[in-house]
Here is the input.
Amino acid sequence: MHSHATPEEQLPLELQPSPKSYATAVILSFVFGFLGIQHFYLRRWGEALLDVGLSLAWFVCMVIGEFGWMVLFLVLDFGHSFVVSIQLLTGTFKDGSGRPVCYPGQKLRPRRAPAVASTAAASPEAAPAPPAPIQPR
Here is the structure.
């Protein structure tokens, strides 16, 4: 049998845009980000459960009067939500399959391979000398 994969499906996952809606993910992140709803939508189950757990933790701490712990969990929860929202806005956040959630018009480019040091640069003779230590007066 021959597989009939589209040219897009033959690309690495990092070059395949997510089928999930960018606008929906961003709206969910800004409105319900502290609850992790955007992670459920994007099928990122671990982060979804982390956000729900953090939200539950700060709420319970608030109810029982543990305000120090409440502030800690609240800062962690909203801090995580802020970082995720920025990643979504900049097109660097990936869905649960590893595909980028692309903003409208975003062009996906392959990552550059790390530069390989040449053998001349890797030899100890080619390395610059470390700076001389500073002598106290």
